[in-house]
Every structure is written in structure tokens, then in C-alpha cells.
Specification:
The protein is of the alpha/beta class. The protein contains eleven helices and seven strands. Helices cover about 35% and strands about 10% of the residues. The protein has a seven-stranded parallel beta sheet with strand order 3-2-1-4-5-6-7, with helices on both faces.
């Protein structure tokens, strides 16, 4: 008798098996999800919404792909309509829109350069114009440019990393605050590198440390207004940022150094953002939640 070999979907395998990724690299950042192999898993078919975000309006920066796409899909399943801000990745953004709309939600696409304060104001203005309100602000945009030495970080790279990763936090929140009501939520994407450090990512890690401080300080400033401010600190996650940042050889072992011996998939972070956006976290503010495959950090 031939033994039965159990079938594992890739979704199951990504949870249980330390599968390596095929070597690959994209030369332009942000990367494009539709070019990745395998495609990141943004939607967990097993996750069924229960109306946790019914009627809410959310802005998600970097929502065209990766973590942002997974968050947009998760929010849609829970009843929220979303606005997605992205830089130039139109094909990815359109794919995300279709996924969001397949769950009965609305999705506004906003192609903007968030490094410019005027465009951040435009994101808020167009969202309010389109939906009439704003309840959740997810600050998720980011770039990283690995360098072997601090001496290799040019002034241009340093400014671009900070202008992309941290400046829009201020620009967007400043523009959004007049529209946020008690019960609203601001959620930023930090990183395990803010706690564990990363020798190839000194400037990126510094911006993520700034995100942590931004989260803690702003939460104290807004707590009396009933607006909660939190962050999520992912570990290595299979997204376009990975393949557009690292060499093909590095990509092939990406995430294998975590206790779980694998990188995470974007859908594995979405429930954390849903929790922080919903009333389930009504007593949570100023916190950073770690989703990193078992890496121990001092939070």
C-alpha cells in the first residue's frame, strides 16, 4: 500500500515549515508585490469578520501591498471602508482595491508622495471629502536601504529614510487630528529593529525607534481626547520591502534566524491591527505589540 502523504496548503506550510524563499531582488524601492515569488499571503480565508469595525473609515499608508494590504483586507472583513495611500505601485494598489471590494467594503486609492507635507494634507482632505469622516489612521509607509557601514549611508539616503519613515507620521496626524473623535485610533508600524537593532539598518532602525517614541508621547498627549495611539512591531515579514532591500542570497534565508525559523506572512499581522483599531483595545494606548516569530524584546 502506498502511504498517504498529507497535503499542506502554502498557508499551512508558512506556519509550520521553515521553507526558504527563491533568491530574488528588485532594483527599485518600494518593491512590487506582483513580481514576487511566491506571492505574499495577504488574506486568511479562515478569518471571518464579526463587525468589529462596522461603519468605520480608515486610512492605511503603504496599503497597496505587504502588511498594508493585509490590514486593508482585514479591516474590510470587519466592516470598515478604507483609503489607501501609495507611491507609484498602481498594479498592486488596484489588486488590493479589488480584494477589499470583494468583501463588500469601499476602497479609495490615493497615489501620493507622503514625504511632502502638502500631499499628506491632500490624503486627509480627499478621504474626508469621499467618506465624510475618519476613525482610524494606520501609518505604515517605509523604506530601508541596508549598508555594511555607517560610512556608506549618504546624506541623501539618511534624509530619504527619515523623510519617508517618520516625517509623514507628523504630517498626516497633524492634518487628521481635527477630524478624529473620541474612540478613534492611530496605529503605526514600528519594527523589531527598534528593540533588537540591526547592523545593516542603522538609519532604518533609528526611524523605527522614533516611531516608538512618537507612539508613546502622542498617546499621552491625546489620551484626554479619547484617541488611542499604539504601534505594531513586526519581525521579518515576506513583503516587497524585503526583495527590494536585500540581495537575492540574503532573501533566500530571510527569517530563518527567528525562533520559529521562518519569516511571517502579512496576514499574520492583520488581526493585531484590527485589535488596536477596534473597541476590543479600549484600555490600550501608548503600547507596542510585537509580532515577530518569537524574538524576545524589551518593550
Amino acid at each position: 500500500m502506498i502511504p498517504m502523504i498529507p497535503y499542506y496548503s502554502y498557508e499551512t506550510q508558512c506556519r509550520q515549515l521553515p521553507l526558504p524563499f527563491p533568491p530574488q531582488h528588485q532594483n527599485v524601492q518600494p518593491g512590487l508585490e506582483y513580481l514576487m515569488c511566491p506571492q505574499p499571503i495577504s488574506d486568511n480565508p479562515g478569518y471571518k469578520g464579526s463587525g468589529k469595525l462596522a461603519g468605520k473609515i480608515a486610512i492605511i499608508t503603504g496599503g497597496d501591498s505587504g502588511i498594508g494590504r493585509a490590514v486593508a483586507i482585514g479591516f474590510a472583513k470587519e466592516g470598515a471602508n478604507v483609503a489607501i495611500a501609495y507611491l507609484y505601485e498602481r498594479s498592486d494598489a488596484e489588486a488590493t482595491r479589488q480584494m477589499v471590494e470583494s468583501y463588500g467594503a469601499r476602497c479609495l486609492l490615493l497615489e501620493v508622495d507622503l514625504r511632502q507635507p502638502a500631499y499628506c494634507k491632500e490624503v486627509i482632505r480627499r478621504t474626508i471629502e469621499h467618506y465624510g469622516r475618519l476613525d482610524v489612521l494606520v501609518l505604515n509607509q517605509g523604506v530601508q536601504f541596508p549598508q555594511e557601514s555607517l560610512l556608506c549611508i549618504s546624506d541623501e539616503q539618511l534624509e530619504n529614510t527619515f523623510r519617508t519613515n517618520i516625517f509623514p507620521m507628523f504630517y498626516l496626524t497633524r492634518a487628521a487630528l481635527p477630524y478624529l473623535q473620541p474612540g478613534s485610533s492611530i496605529i503605526s508600524t514600528a519594527s523589531v529593529t527598534a528593540y533588537a537593532g540591526a547592523p545593516l539598518l542603522v538609519d532604518y532602525s533609528s526611524t523605527k525607534g522614533a516611531v516608538v517614541s512618537f507612539t508613546r508621547s502622542l498617546s499621552l498627549q491625546l489620551v484626554d481626547k479619547g484617541i488611542r495611539v499604539n504601534a505594531v512591531a513586526p519581525g521579518p515579514i515576506w513583503t516587497p520591502l524585503t526583495v527590494s532591500s536585500y540581495s537575492a542570497d540574503y532573501v533566500s534565508t530571510f527569517g530563518r534566524d527567528t525562533p520559529m525559523k521562518r519569516a511571517g506572512q502579512p496576514f499574520e499581522l492583520a488581526p493585531t491591527y484590527i485589535y488596536l483599531a477596534s473597541d476590543d483595545s479600549s484600555y490600550v494606548t501608548g503600547q507596542v505589540l510585537h509580532v515577530n516569530g518569537g524574538v524576545m524584546t524589551e518593550s
